[in-house]
Amino acid sequence: MQGSEPLFDQNYIHIKKGRHPLIPKDTVVPIDVTLGREYDLLIITGPNTGGKTVSLKTVGLFTLMGQAGMHIPAYDHSHLRVYEEVYADIGDEQSIEQSLSTFSSHMVNTVYILKRANKKTLTLFDELGAGTDPTEGAALAIAILDNLHSRNVTAMATTHYSELKLYALQTGGVENASCEFDVESLQPTYRLLVGVPGKSNAFAISGKLGLSEDIIKSAEQLVDTDARQCEDVVTGLEEARTEAEKEREKAKKIREEAEHYKQKLITKNERIDQAKEKILRRANEEANEILQKAKDMADDSIRKYNKWMNDSGMTKEMEKERAALREELNKTGNKLSIPETRKAPGKAPDKLKPGDIVMVHSMGVKGTVSTEPDAKGKCYVQMGILRSMVDIKDLELLEQETKASKREAAISHARNMKMAKAMTISPEINLIGKTVDEALALLDKYLDDAYLAKLHQVTVIHGMGTGALRNAVQNHCKKCKYVKSYRMGEYGEGGYGVTVIEFK
């Protein structure tokens, strides 16, 4: 991978997918390490050849590379801290010439580091306390780390001692980490797991390799109680981590699916809006064209009529123009979905009142009476967009349509009353904070009102909580006769915190 520029704007180390620069890129396993923020001391445990020392070296190398102005093989936005000194005790430096054993060589380095370490130094220990009696080595390692921790020294240490795992669990500002080991394949994964202490896999590995179960059980009995309790704690943590990773993967997939459907819904709504806008625009254009044509023809007829009023000999031309105008009005009416009904002229209606539906025979269109007839037997009739004074002899009362119109008016009034009722009913009810009994009483009345108001769908907000209120609401829906269906809320509706109810 290409290197990235580390950030030094924070006073801690946070490496994202860091890769050791000397390990081939096709085999190296990236690690995530944080140090100096919530904790200053990190204790790494795990099997041999599992990656503990590589993790230690990666942090040390990245620190020196960053302070030297070099890029580091890690993801962008990785943070490093500037240290005045970096001390490391890594490897076996035993020397026959100097009469130094493994333990002695490590201790010489440790003494040197302890004398010079402070809060501005980074210290790295590989197998701290190794090479001597395990009990004494563990006690000595804890004492050394505790001394560094009390002086606010940033440090990392690898170890096999279970006592150091317990020390990290019991001490604030100290964190466990481990290098993962796959018991099934008997191979390390080289993944660094911060927050999870490593467990000894000696018994499991021995069993996989064919060691007798009796021998393994005997060995387990020889392990002291504290050590077994530590292993039990580590095993529990490992199981919890594995389960958490599975749940995290499930949540990630669900989140990705939700985002996918969200984008599909947004795209679909955009297409619908565009189509709707196109249809409305075209409809408006057609309506404007029809109205403009009718207006132009009416203006032309008015001009001709004014001319004819000054010339009494133009009666034939007037009748001809009147017929042409009537024909055009009929065409316009057809385009505007006004049904054409023609009947032979009958006798004048006895009584006409505003609101009556009539047929204007000379025009061949239906209209609504606007005024009562005057002394000359004429009244105003509204015919679509036209309003004209017409002789009642030219009108035929359409009694059935008048009655139907009155019924429609009554129905419309009732519908408006229902709509007014519906407007007072909220499409959702909030039951959060209510007891089950209180919530069910409110819900029962609300569902009655919503159903009477002809609401198609309502939303009940009950929150997630323990699920008791949600279950009570849904059980009530099962018993309600006019509830067609119910479901949990979808993305954008409230999820598992709401129940969406559809009426029959």
What does this structure look like?
The chain is built from 11 helices and 17 strands. The chain has helices at 52-67, 102-116, 134-150, 162-170, 202-208, 213-222, 225-309, 315-335, 399-424, 436-452, 468-479, and strands at residues 13-18, 31-35, 41-45, 85-89, 121-125, 154-159, 174-182, 187-194, 357-360, 365-369, 378-383, 386-391, 395-397, 428-430, 457-461, 483-488, 498-503. It is α/β, with parallel strands linked by helices. The protein is elongated, with a radius of gyration of 45 Å. It starts with 12 loop residues before the first strand and ends with a strand. The chain has 4 domains: 13-198, P-loop containing nucleotide triphosphate hydrolases (Rossmann fold); 255-337; 342-413, SH3 type barrels (Roll), CATH 2.30.30; 425-503, Ribosomal Protein S8, Chain: A, domain 1 (2-Layer Sandwich), CATH 3.30.1370.110. Helix 7 (225-309) runs antiparallel to helix 8 and helix 10 packs across helix 11. The longest helix is centred in the middle third of the chain and has 85 residues, at 225-309. Mean pLDDT is 80; it is low at 94-99 and 337-344. It has a 6-stranded mixed β-sheet, with helices on both faces.
